């Protein structure tokens, strides 16, 4: 039988164990993550230069691996013909032809454009995920999951603030 003292000690042990696990996870992330911050890219800028060209929300997501709140991006509702480009360097990363409604509140695609993205291992928040970043500037775009639709079965779950939409232009030949 447990008494109050036993519950108190169990609670302290649980908190101490979680803190130790968090510290170990943080340490593992620093040593084993091969993310965009450890890579070299065609476009490089100082933090100050990025802050000058990006809006605060864009900077938080693209340069600090942040996440926008679900359902807040107007890009989640755009299904018009066109291309989604990196908001940091305007490299085309996804086509509207591969966009689908995942129901998550973030723009989702089953396939990136060729030579548009890179991936790395993200070991933050007690889990291991595949981070998606811009191949040219290293800007964090979102994460990749294996629960998407055919034909790839992939879901590239992207932060809308990390991208811009460029509508397809209609040719007017006459």
For this entry, give a set of tags.
globular; about 170 residues; 6-stranded antiparallel β-sheet; 2 domains; about 25% strand; alpha+beta; Metal Binding Protein, Guanine Nucleotide Exchange Factor, Chain A; about 25% helix
Walkthrough of the structure:
- This protein is an alpha+beta fold.
- The chain folds into two domains: 1-32; 34-167, Metal Binding Protein, Guanine Nucleotide Exchange Factor, Chain A.
- It has helices spanning 4-32, 47-53, 56-64; strands at 82-86, 92-95, 99-100, 108-109, 117-122, 129-134, 140-145, 155-158, 163-167.
- The strands form two sheets. The protein has a six-stranded antiparallel beta sheet.
- The longest helix is centred in the first third of the chain and has 29 residues, at 4-32.
- It is globular, with a radius of gyration of 20 Å.
- Residues 9-34 have low confidence and may be disordered.
CATH uppermost class of the largest domain: Mainly Beta
Question: What fraction strand?
Answer: 15-25%
C-alpha geometry? globular
Number of domains: 2
Largest sheet features: 6 strands, antiparallel
Helix content estimate? 25-40%
Strand order of the largest sheet: 3-4-8-7-6-5
CATH homologous superfamily name of the largest domain? Answer: Peptide methionine sulfoxide reductase
Topology of this protein?
Layout: H1 4-32, H2 47-53, H3 56-64, E1 82-86, E2 92-95, E3 99-100, E4 108-109, E5 117-122, E6 129-134, E7 140-145, E8 155-158, E9 163-167
Antiparallel strand pairs: 1-2, 1-9, 3-4, 4-8, 5-6, 6-7, 7-8
């Amino acid at each position: 039988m447990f008494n109050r003292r036993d519950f108190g000690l169990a609670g302290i042990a649980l908190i101490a164990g979680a803190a130790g696990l968090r510290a170990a996870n943080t340490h593992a992330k620093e040593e084993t993550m091969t993310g965009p911050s450890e890579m070299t890219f065609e476009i490089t800028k100082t933090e100050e230069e990025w802050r000058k060209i990006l809006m605060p929300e864009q900077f938080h997501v693209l340069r600090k691996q942040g996440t926008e709140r679900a359902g807040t991006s107007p890009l989640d509702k755009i299904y018009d013909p066109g291309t989604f480009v990196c908001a940091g360097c305007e490299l085309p990363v996804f086509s509207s032809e591969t966009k689908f409604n995942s129901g998550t509140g973030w723009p989702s695609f089953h396939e990136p454009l060729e030579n548009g993205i890179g991936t790395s291992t993200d070991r933050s928040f007690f889990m291991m995920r595949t981070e998606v970043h811009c191949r040219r500037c290293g800007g964090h775009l979102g994460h990749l999951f294996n629960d998407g639709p055919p034909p790839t079965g992939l879901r590239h779950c992207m932060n809308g603030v990390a991208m811009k939409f460029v509508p397809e232009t209609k040719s007017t030949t006459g």
